[in-house]
Amino acid sequence: MAQLDYLAPLKVEDAVKALAATGSYALAGGTDLLVQLRSGRIRPDTIVDLKRIAGTIGIREEAGGFVIGAATPGAMIGEHEALSRAWPGLVEAVSLIGSTQVQGRASLAGNLCNASPAADSVPAMIAARAVCVVVGPAGRREVPVEAIGTAPGRTSLAPGEFVLEIRLPPRPARSSDAYLRLIPRTEMDIAVVGAGVNLTLDAAGVVIEAQVALGAVAPTALLVPDAGAALVGSKLDEASLAALDTAARAACHPISDKRGTAEYRTKIAGVLARRAAFIAYERAGARA
Amino acid sequence: MSDVLDGPGVQPDLKVVGTRPIRPDGADKVTGRAAFGADFNMPGQLVGKILRSPHAHAKIVSIDTRKARALPGVKAVVTGADFPNLASEMHEGGEAASNLRDLAMNVIARDKALYDGHAVAAVAATSSAIADEALRLITVTYEVLPHVIDVEAAMSPDAPVLHAHLFTEGLEVRPTSASNVARRNQITRGDLAEGFAAADVIVEGRYTTQAVHQGYIEPHACVAAWVEDGQCDVWSSSQGQFMVRTYCAKILGLEISDIRVTPAEIGGGFGGKTTVYLEPLALALSRQSGHPVKMVMTREEVFRATGPTSGAVILVKLGAKVDGTMTAAEVELKYQAGAFPGSPVGAGSMTALACYDIPNFLITGWDVVTNSPKVAAYRAPGAPIAAFGVESAVDDLARKLGMDPLALRERNGVRNGVKAAYGPTFQNIGYLETLAAIKDCPQYSLPLGPNQGRGVAAGFWFNVGGESTAAVHVNEDGSVVVVTGNPDIGGSRAAMAMMAAETLGVPMQRVRPRIADTASIGFSMLTGGSRTTFATGMAVVQAAEKVVADLKRRAALLWEVPADKVEWRNGAAVCLDPAKADPKPMTLEILAGQSARTGGPISAQVSLNAQGAGPGFGVHVCDVEIDPETGHVTVLRYTAAQDVGKAIHPSYVEGQVQGGVAQGVGWALNEEYIFDSDGRMENAGFLDYRVPVASDLPMIDTILVEVANPRHPFGAKGVGEVPIVPPLAAVANAIRSAIGVRMADLPLSPPKIRAVMDARAS
Amino acid sequence: MSKPHISAIVNGDPVEFLADPGMTLLDALRDELSLTGSKEGCGSGDCGACSVIVDGRLVCSCLMLAAEAEGRRVDTIEGLAQGGRLHPLQQKFLEHAALQCGFCTPGLLMAAKALLDANPDPTETEARYWLAGNLCRCTGYDKVIRAVMDAAAELRQVKV
Questions:
Q1: Which of B184, B270, C126, C151 could form a disulfide with B214 if both were Cys (CB 3.0 to 4.6 A apart)?
Q2: Residue B7: which CATH number?
Q3: What is the pLDDT at residue B490?
Q4: Contact call for B32 and C140, based on CB within 8 A
């Protein structure tokens, strides 16, 4: 019988080498990987634990933005005050992943690379224009978050590649973000729909930049430029919110499954985009 | 808020009963020391695992186990062929009767797999990984058959038939062909047509529910050892060690006395652990391997292969005069039984109209087999489903009549002397008092905000008595041990110790309750039917009374007075003979210390078949708020009033009520079995099955209405099952009140509510 | 492959054991260290019955490999009572009848301990959301929440 191997390399190069082999899986927080292992959905030869590599756990401020280590647990992200002030939407999205227990382990990179279209942090990261630092046999490259997931359970990462850290751009004044999701209960569910909105206002309170991203309404999380465009130039009046709702719904091409029907998901995408936009707008206004 | 309202017949001056002491097994359970099913190990044990059918309905053409047997570390492999074929025979288990042939075939499939998850083979190996590998090496050749899960589809004449031997019982004319309809039952009174003709107002509704699981957090687990001389030991988590013993003996063809079953602590059951799944397989694997075998289900196995309760269709028609007097009711219940006959539709039929005094009614129940796991008892089996339909219709009737829903229920509510719809005449019931308690509770008159609604509903459960044994032993220092044969699911040890202490007149802390294995106490029916505090409690009290009589006799002997000159007061014998100059009372300690001189050890055992369990009624009020854009429902407030007889330990009675409410709210809002087009369960895990979590619920206020049951020494009635009966309709009625539309298909999940909001808007 | 040798601190004491690389921390606690107070209700992080505290963070021990515990400090239910005295949370669970079957109780207690360590004065809503990862099917959570709030109040008194 095949035996599983566990490696916890200390260096990026060693991790890359180990992950290049077929049957190797990267372990960050493990909250998805261990479930798949247990259910027999995956039968790895080697598990490569990334958490002993320097920098994979932790948050630092760099060049006016933030750098979040790939395996930093959600709880640590939620406790980071400066990050929470600058990116409240991203932090609340991360904090929505699973239970308190899951927050003790689950990571941004894991949430991203598990490649579920319903991952809560992903729409928030996309709306934030976050960039992944990917390392691999060919060296180091920077990739926008939305380019990682290609289909449910699939990523654009080549064998041996993994996400080392996630970079958030510098935050101008009068900008903020928000993330909302719909679940049938109040906790512990996978998002039926998720919506992240990231806004920058001018001194008069007019939206000058807007990104809207949606989760669980397509095979991957979506950046919806039309939805963002609907807000630019407005103060979130009724008409711009209606246009946002319409654009968000137009971008959806969801499936019907045990978590929700396609029709319902589409309607809710519009609702949540509007509500998240409203919250982001209030927050951005407060960061004058 | 938690109120206890003393009603008629409650004994005054109780010292222990009615107080809230710390439970005797509490420290064990808060320190992690208590041993549940999976916490026990035997030396040299193997790991047992089960191969399950991936098909909802398939003929098993062949099973090739040779490769699995050849794998090093595999010590045993069993299939259906290793078990005797049993004749059809009903066995009364305590909560519901089981057909032993079907039970055996549910434990392991023979010719056909009848649902996704049906056990097909089992292995025992030296490690979990080897057992998994062995399962992969078993080749089963299936001939996949068309399947049917929806209850009405299964009733249709062209449905795939699960059992060629199944001919509908209970029809006027026995059918000539097999079908999935196992049985029709009917209960009727008066003249239905006349009753509806006399009505000024008629409401009708069609309601559906989906299969839901008991959702106990502890998966099924056992260790079984077959010793070479044929004697067996089983350690398992169940609602009844005697039930496990009987079923294992029947399924394996053993003498009952050759099996000893030791009850582990049980991590929740709610009816779902009133039957066996693993134990007979573990014994068979142990017999073949010569080693003890431990088996623990995964959560996925629990969902796919152990008892949910029925999904159902409920049709209700009610007629009433303008003053609210109900003149007629017609109820039709169609319940999924799962793979074998035996849905709880009988109890559903009997309880459907149990809260109402209606002169003309007809209740028809259909028990229908389907390609889904065989249903198991779930807390007041059958009653919540029927009540969902009836209580929703009563709510509509109140609205149509312009009456307060509690007033309508009061006008037609059963009271003492009324003949219940299911037969007997009610005595000592507290339904009207329970309705009044909700009418008077603060929640019922709080103002509601926008998008908020309030619903009420009532519910009924019989509660049962039955066979129980209890022993009371007085130790040489005067401390007391109470031994019973009922697993403690929710604090019954405390109730047993309290009732013994009250009877003996000693502090509860001097009484230690223990739960014995099947060889160490007389037979007791399982913990179910809300029977333990009532029936086993009655045995405990009677055993304690025997001890008291014996103590009085012993004191009389020591004082050299006639026995009738001794009374038992406050835990001591008191001499009433004036000729004896002021003898000091002889305490339990003194008498225990001298037991050798007065006849030896002080001990009594009582076995009885308890009759006279008082039926219970609950009335609930639920406030909700709807998010009109998403359809999400928030339960804002909840108050549950229940006629509990006398609450022995009020905290645990409140806990039963609150737990029942939480399960009912889950059933109403989110829980359901979801099957794909191949009949495979799609949400066999807690993530997508969605039981309520702490943030889903508000505090659940309780009002314990104490209308004593004179058949119990302290007035107790069963309390555990009633509270799951009203919530389905209480929630649905609250949503009706909030959105103005009747929603009749559970669960009332956000997409359904949003769809109704959209339809209402357009 | 050989089994990794793991050294960790469990409930304050150094422990060493061998673990299959795929073995979860929960299985190691239960099967290698005979600490069966942590329960498996789901094996997928959805019920919280296996909750333990690793280096001060609440985690599901079913979602962590035993091998990851190398050099870590693990606190389980078996370490909650100290010196023969129940922790105030344990005492309040008993006083409030916050358990029925008791299976989810160890996990709930560890989660509640982590809550009060992080937030000594939680609101009811904060307590409910923090504990949402601990399923209890018996109690409807009412008495659990009351016990946690009462224990929090008592612990605040002790600190003052």
A1: B270
A2: 3.30.365.10
A3: 87
A4: no
Residue C18, chain B, CB below 8 Å: the answer is no
Strand-strand pairing, C57-60 and C73-75: unpaired
Mean pLDDT of C14-41: 96
CB B198 within 8 A of CB B321: yes
Residue with tokens 């702490």: B694
A175-286 to CATH, choices 3.40.50.150, 3.30.390.50, 3.40.50.300, 1.10.10.10: 3.30.390.50
pLDDT, tens digit (0-9, with 9 covering 90-100), for B195-213 = 999 999 999 999 999 999 9
The set of chains that have 3 or more CB pairs under 8 A with A is B, C
Nearest to A5 among C1, C63, C111 (CB): C1
Residues in chain B within 8 Å Cβ distance of C135: 217, 686, 691, 693
Q: Where are the domains of chain A?
A: 5-49, 59-168, 175-286
The domain over range A59-168 is classified in CATH as 3.30.465.10: yes
Q: Which of B615, B610, B627 is nearest to B739 (CA)?
A: B627
A168-209, pLDDT tens digit by residue? 999 999 999 999 999 999 999 999 999 999 999 999 999 999
Selecting from A6, A30, A186 the residue whose C-beta is nearest the C-beta of C63 gives: A30
CA B532 to chain centre: 11
Same domain, residue pair C97 and C145: yes
In whole angstroms, what is the distance from residue B296 CA to residue B275 CA? 15
What the block records as the tokens of B495 is: 């109730």
pLDDT in the model for residue B311:
98
Contact C94 B30 (CB under 8 A): yes
Q: What is the pLDDT of residue C160?
A: 63
Alpha helices in B108-207 (DSSP H): 128-137, 151-155, 192-197
- CB contacts under 8 A, A 40-99 vs B, are 40
Interface subset of C 89-118, CB within 8 angstroms of A: 111, 114-115
- The verdict on a CB contact (< 8 Å) between C94 and B23 is yes
Chain C interface includes B1 (CB < 8 A)? no
pLDDT tens-place string over residues B472-502: 999 999 999 999 999 999 899 999 999 999 9
Q: What domain range includes position B545?
A: 465-610
